[in-house]
Amino acid sequence: MSTLTDRQDAFGHAIYDYLHGDAGAACVVERDDNLIEAGADMSLYSGDFPTWPRHQREAIRFARGRVLDIGCGAGRCLLYLQQNGHDVMGIDVSPHAVKLCRERGARQVRLMSITALSRRLGRFDTIIMYGNNFGLVENPRRAAWLLKKMHGLTSPAGRIIAESRNPYISPKPEHIEYHRRNRRRGRMPGQTRIKVRYKRYATPWFDWLLVSPDEMRDLMTGTGWHVARLFDSGCVRYMAVIEKD
What we know:
By secondary structure, the protein is of the alpha/beta class. It is built from 7 helices and 12 strands. It has one domain: Rossmann fold (3-Layer(aba) Sandwich). It is 27% helix and 27% strand.
């Protein structure tokens, strides 16, 4: 997804309103088979470190050196790492998320898509992709391209700390049928085409890739990375620490 206009910035407006006192602010997610579901609780994107789920708290301890936070949102991870002495840069496609990060004290944050990453940003020791942001790779072909790009942006001992959702754990019937639909179309089962809505704001349609740990391992093949460690949440979410071969 490229950077968003104001009218497209559904999540940015929702999290901005939430952190400015609107406790009822929430997104909805529309899928391309007409399924509509509530988005995640806004508090998950803004809480202080002690309130984070355990798998996220365990994984963030593997961050080292200079850090790039891809899809930094409200700045939850960025600010935690900044407060703990890291040189950290956040990027997001949401103008309101970037504005919110700056208001909350982020020193380095840019309005930027993951596809615009380049060596002009400098070299990083850690890349983090919290909030299921491994999904930004969208599909296997783009995943290979982005992972190779990240390989070139990181130091010899660089690592990626990424969160995803296993789409095969306790799926609902409508998700099982969606997986079948994807397979018929030559797509990965968890390759989900969605848009996010909030009030009068709506993103364009975009793909979001949900993968099992084994599928994530397969996506690393030929990219110079491998999954070194997993942190399970006890349900569908998990964190992966991905290191260079």
